[in-house]
Design brief:
366 residues; alpha/beta; Rossmann fold; five-stranded parallel β-sheet; four-stranded parallel β-sheet; 11 strands
Length: 366
Amino acid sequence: MSIAAKMQSLREALAHWAKQAARPLTLMEVCGTHTMAIHRHGIHSLLPRNVRLISGPGCPVCVTSQGQVDQIVELSRRPDITIATFGDMVRVPGSTSSLERERARGADVRVVYSPHDAVALAEALPLRQVVFIGIGFETTQPTIAAALIEARRRGIGNFTVVPAGKRVPPALTALLDSGDLRLDGVICPGHVSVIIGSRAYEPFAQRYHLPCAVAGFEPTEVLDAIVALVRQAAEQRAEVENLYGVWVRREGNRRALEMIESVFAAGPARWRGLGLIAESGFLLRNGWDDYDAARRFGIEEGEVLEPPGCLCGDVLRGRLQPSECPLFGRPCTPEDPVGPCMVSTEGSCAADYRYGPRQSQRCRED
């Protein structure tokens, strides 16, 4: 079956089950890659009138708290420190600056493609302290753990990490317990689920009677997940459907989970828009304190407010669509972002700006 025929078949199934549901349904995707795919392929335009799809806290750069961004910026100002980071983090605005601005002022900020690149950089620069910014969900934590183990094995003492990793299930629990919105289904993140497995979402189906579907990233896979969720709602079921079984197992990737467990422990973490959430962060275990950049250099994460007028936190909670923020598109754009949701390639504001109605309007004007 061709992709076009598959999409048409899914649209027909979606229309059928949406009619059977006979009530408005709100679904949420909790993955930045899904967010970008949904906007790029115009999935919103395929939905029946009674089905609404909103974005959740699925972008790791976006959910990094303002206080932690300021902490990272402060580290970059130390003359003996080289910051190694994934590219999306460079342009995220802090309260007064960003890594990009600090680099323009002379700070040594380097973009790397893996934590192992940062370890190699530390070995190549023995007279400098190399700090890797450990942003990411469960997907990136095994490689960060492996890099720390490698650095210890090789005796590289000038390598540290800002442990900024986040755990998705506790954030989803906090979101559901907040009472901010009523969800009728969740598209679960594909990459994260490869690590933690589909069974991580079973408590949500059981406790909240919330339909869940683990999905891939092609338009047919995303639409298939939406059909599954709407069908569950119509049939008044709440289960976890693994539609990405090629890569995702119920128990997850045990080797990756063991790697994480050997270095990190679950602890409290502050999320932009959601506040402090217990057990939602990846903290370095006892015995790994020497590799914690905040401890080594004495720079703590403070509690800092969002930039004035920025509603990124409300967007991450699903309370607002990006275009409902008064700063969206003017003055906040990907070229001059006010908040991280407009910076990251996985940010919902960036996706809406690039592929949403405003883009269609700009194309007509051109």
